[in-house]
Amino acid sequence: AQKITQTQPGMFVQEKEAVTLDCTYDTSDPSYGLFWYKQPSSGEMIFLIYQGSYDQQNATEGRYSLNFQKARKSANLVISASQLGDSAMYFCAMREDNTGANSKLTFGKGITLSVRP
Amino acid sequence: ETGVTQSPTHLIKTRGQQVTLRCSSQSGHNTVSWYQQALGQGPQFIFQYYREEENGRGNFPPRFSGLQFPNYSSELNVNALELDDSALYLCASSGNNEQFFGPGTRLTVL
After folding, report:
1. Interface test with B, best of A104, A107, A111 (most B CBs within 10 A)
2. Residues B73 and B16 sit within 8 Å (Cβ to Cβ)
């Protein structure tokens, strides 16, 4: 089974509206971390937000928030007040803390987000 | 900007050649990981270095090798290049719950 699943086709959102990007994950490790990254066409991978498996609160960073539903194994990214510069690929990734490589990230296939003016 | 730098930015090689990619980690980070990102895919973990030792490896053949130096910068070496090695190579330096990526090296194998 895939460890990180991002199944949405290309997403479109109107400028200034909110959008949710879906991510589900699969792990038997009780300690893990979930990350979201943005990758514009330039290729750089930009860190957006992190959620630890033991965190009680959903993570927030400015316009980004993570809707963490542990029982459902989902970690959806919510972007509020979309901007044209938000158009990019978005990747969900997981770090499992009890593997040998303590910083190894497993990525999903990504979601393309296009913001319309 | 993350403080993670990579060189070169772009590289073109022919099949069978060898290549070395370089990464300087963010200040204070002692762990460097390398990823390969094929076109249209998510990054795939190659290996990780922690305090100059390999500390985990993904499903990549031995012709992918690396080094980490005392200043925590790192190299990725690929021998006997194949066409499928064409990809964006990303390095990431990590500390605590941060993992910051460099801008990547785009390798084209002809």
Report:
1. A104
2. no
